[in-house]
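Task 17 of the worksheet. Students: predict the tertiary structure of the chain below and write it out as structure tokens. Keep your answer in the requested format; marks are given for formatting as well as content.
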Amino acid sequence: MKAVGVLVVGILAGILLGNMFFSETRVIYSQQPGNSPITVVKPLPDSGLNISTASISVPAVDDNGNGVTTTLTVSLVPGSGRILANIDNILFFVDTQNSIRTAKSVGERHARLDLSNFDVIYTIEAEAAVVEGPSAGAALAAATIASLEGRTIDPSVLITGTINNDGTIGPVGGILEKAKAAKASGAELFLVPLGQSTETTYENSRFCEQIGRTEVCTVEQIPHKVDVSSEAGIEVIEVRSVEDSLE
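Model answer:
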């Protein structure tokens, strides 16, 4: 069933695998049409205890290779230092879960806060069955810091990138598709990892030649350098770290 899922990830041990250089956050849809999306956004158990909340739109790529946006909310409530996942009708892959864990650690260090008496709740709303990939890490870290410091995130600015434990932002795939999704969502500025304001795309070209009496054909990939800003129609700025993105 195609459903609006609300998900958040609990603490899971693990490290990002070394082969995730071009991993990306993906939302995977079920293939059963005809059902209306079911909104399952749930309030906190006691909204009166909610200390601080920050939300940010996150660009992603669906299973058809199309850019989409999801909504991430980070809430800080009294607790015991836990990272909580608000999960319903959606599955988080371990790489996304680990990104949340890293984002919380980066945010805690940046804000210089001891969260041993608070819980951080991560909620992601997506019309999806599965969310996978670490490319929401930079947005997770930015939203965490905004929640901890009582900031409001500018809705006209979106960001993509993995988050490293030192706060630097790593590369992701699907930059052009995400930039187009950011533009479609109404954003005016798209923040990307260093070196990713341009993208190389490949066009398949059929080449045939006559060898004796036989025609031999091959499919070649012709590279094209694409300026993401010009192609997507949105201003694109490269950022090295979550500190840079906060500016």
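Marker's comment: Confidence is low (pLDDT under 50) at residues 1-49. The two ends are 40 Å apart (CA to CA).
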